[in-house]
Design a protein that fits this description.
Length: 187
């Protein structure tokens, strides 16, 4: 066989020299494109980062230094101590031997409790406090058991110092738990 026949029989390469280098160009172009994207991102970050405003720091105010001038001290004079008169305690008050139920018929909140405290301070035993059957009594009414009628004048006198007394009677039931009942009025 001659040479021409061998060259015709040898397989021909399908790649030409120009086609073989085209794959390398694609890789180089991809690397350049990636670098361009990174450069754009970095540049944008620098540009946007430089546009942020700095927060201004407050301007310090001058402070006044303390002076060495002494402060004058006022002259002190002794204040007399007031003498207090001791109030009688519950133990010091002798019992009058009369248990009283105090009912509020005035409509003024707390009046039964404050009156009970007043009577207790005078030596009366307080059986109970509460509200009366109605709240429009004008004057204070006192009802006492007939067996304790001798104490009615004292109770009436003690209550008359604070209230206008209306009716008094010795008609409280002998079986009642209290010896006397006081219904407070508005006056």
């Amino acid at each position: 066989m001659d040479e021409t026949t061998i060259s015709q029989m040898a397989p021909q390469s399908t790649l030409s020299p120009q086609q073989g280098s085209g794959g390398g160009r694609k890789i180089i172009l991809a690397i350049i494109a990636i670098m361009a994207v990174v450069a754009v991102i970095f540049g944008a970050g620098k540009f946007l980062g430089s546009r942020q405003q700095e927060i201004p720091q407050p301007t310090p105010f001058p402070t006044q230094e303390p002076t060495a001038t002494p402060t004058p001290m006022p002259e002190t004079t002794p204040t007399p101590t007031p003498k207090t008169t001791p109030k009688p305690t519950a133990a010091a008050v002798t019992s009058k031997g009369l248990s009283v139920r105090v009912l509020n018929g005035s409509g003024i909140a707390g009046r039964a409790a404050s009156t009970a405290d007043y009577l207790k301070g005078l030596g009366y035993d307080i059986a109970s406090t509460g509200n009366a059957d109605k709240s429009d009594y004008d004057n204070t009414q006192i009802t006492i058991k007939s067996g304790k009628q001798s104490l009615l004048a004292d109770l009436k006198s003690d209550l008359a110092k604070k209230f206008q007394i209306g009716t008094t009677s010795a008609t409280l039931s002998a079986t009642d738990s209290a010896d006397a009942e006081v219904i407070l009025g508005k006056n």
